[in-house]
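Hi team,

Filling in the usual template for the complex we talked about on Friday. All components are listed, including any nucleic acid strands or ligand strings, so the model treats them as one assembly.

SUBMITTER: L.P.
PURPOSE: interface mapping
COMPONENTS: three
RESIDUES: 769
SEQUENCES:
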Amino acid sequence: MKKALNVFLAAVVFLAAGLIPPGIAVAEDKTITIGGKNFTEQYLLPELARLLLEKEGFKVNLRTGVSTVIARQSLEAGQIDMYYEYTGTAYTVFHKQDDAEIMISPEKVYRWVRDKDAKKNLVWLDPLPLDNTYTIMMRRADAAKAKIRTISDFGQYVEKNPGKLTFALESEFWERPDGFKRLMVVYGFRMSPADVKRMDMGLTYLALKEGQVGSAMGFATDGRIQAFNLLTLEDNKSFFPVYNPAPVVTRKTLEKYPEIADILKPLSEKLDNEAMRILNASVDVEHMSVSAAAEKWLKDAGLR
Amino acid sequence: MNLFVFLQENYSTAMYLTWEHLWMVGLSLLIAICTGVPTGIFITRNKQLAQKVIGGANVIMTVPSIALFGLMLPILAVFGHGLGKVPAIIALVLYAELPIVRNTYVAIKNVDPALVDAGKGMGMSKWQLLREVEIPMAVPVIIAGLRTAVVMIIGIAAIAAYVGAGGLGVFIQQGIARSHESMVLAGALCVSLLAVVVDLAMGFLEKRVTPRGMKP
Amino acid sequence: MKEEAFGSPAAATGIRFLLLAAVFIAGIAAERIGLVEYLSDPWEREYVLFLAGQHLYLVAVSMAMALVTGLATGIVVSRKRFRKFAGVVMYVIGLGQTIPSLAVLALTMSFLGIGSKPAILALYIYSTLPIARNTLAGILSVSPAIIDAARGVGMSPARILLEVEIPNALNVILTGIRIALVINIGTAALGYLIGAGGLGDLVFTGINLMRTELLLAGALPITILALAGDYLLELLSLLIVPKGIRMAG
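RESULT (copied from the run log):
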């Protein structure tokens, strides 16, 4: 009996202490921790950055799969050194602004958040050309039948036919200032809570495709929109700001490794909506792994 | 893409996540054993205290694990550890405590009084009694408690993926988010297999450790 | 092996009171975190109640199913004819509990898609074991002397089951149902992840948005529901378990 007991205890201790615990960054030279949110594009961008950085001798730790708020707070707390944030998100969610004139101009909103965050010792590097805006999606056939093409059409339909249309969204989209709650106010309609189905990230596409809801929120660059044959409604009142992603780096990290800006620049030159959609689709639809898709894209773009 | 193709192509990731998962479970179990078993022994001296301690542990069990993770987030964020393995391990330790403390307590309390008397008659001190009679007799039930604990925290560790702790729950979380069925299945099956294997191994250990005289 | 009963009913009530007090204190702390402000918005209140309703729906349906299967299995496997299958049957049902709850949900989602159906199935799988196992244990623990006496009086096996075995096992059976209920209510929080709604919505959203008041708006009701369910079932067992049996138990 003693032997079995000892073997067991040894196994536990070995597991606990054995090798260096996974995930805890060892403070070496040229190590960067990149954060990322919990949707495919935000797994791809850090992966692309990692591949580019590793080529230049950096060691990169990834801490992806968290929400917007958590990513931002991790950056501010120094738990991560950088992550890709969207200009529109930073403008509306972190800085709580809503000046439409600034929001819909890519250059203006970028400069605004860059200047404001500089005071927090967060540096915005060059933005990428892609605009990953929120969209409202419907199945094509349904939209055609109900003659819905813009979000205004959508709002009017909801007002005239209460209870007939259900909407799936992710809880972040519900609560955010650039989210559904305010969208309903701006577009002048109101859906009852019973018709708004909140679900976790990524389920909205599936729910819409499977017919569980009549409409859903999505991201403009997601590869599943095309794959599931979904229609995105036009934001005729320009409610949504521009969402260009850019690497946001702590000043401390940038001062230590100023070359990061140049290493990551190629992404801000080449990754537009079309390219991102294809990248996203290769992961979400063709089920390539994130690293394989990133590698392939870099190779095709001549960067690897 | 089907499950086997996925596992083939992502073998190293799967192995890494399994290791991460086991590491969290192992460390938490170790801490829970080191704190729980002595506590269980200690409260056998005082019934009122025992009720309070075990009652308290019971309350923790009532709180759904994800809620416990979430509650620790703002508190630990102050120390820069809101996310990741730290809140996960703290929660895992807390959940593992009840089965361990309770089983230790019950096991020692249920040691055949005749044996305890015999020991006293032989002139053993309280400490000697504990070390040479009570604990050895209690080991099988303590192991049973460990078995319950470890299977439970393997499950809770899967949920910890949602607060950035990694582990096999990542396959489930990412798979659902990316509509990637094979990934979800891979995660679910790997962690289930892990739980079943560990449960069987612990069951085996339990049998090995039960003195022949005490087997039912 | 003897399980030690924890003190008198008075002590148990004392602990329960302390727990409820603790919940109240937590509630006051929650107020300072902004929970009260959150709930004073009628839209949000409506939503929390709606989610609570969804949560209870998941629990109620799955518990009803688990009761039927759990009791039936426990009873069937306690019959002399089937007793040798008891070990295997309990292990198979027990797999549902050994396997992590998140995995069970993910598996049912793979088969049934997203929504409340797979969640109910998963919760059902999760709740069956405690009920089945305690039904079996309770019936097996009925003193053979009593059964002999009943047989001696000429009772049919069916009557023995209904009028002797089950009433005597009721205490243990109800404990199993209590355990199942508490596990069920807690696990239902994960239903949100596969699109089933429920109070888990607020918990996960609260984590994602780092808004403690949302987290508490979800976690507190779940905890209160679990404690309440546990308490109500204990009351129920006090009411319907004949005094004589309870004392002997």
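MY TAKE: Chain C touches chain B through 47 residues (CB under 8 Å). Chain C has one domain: 14-248.

Thanks, L.
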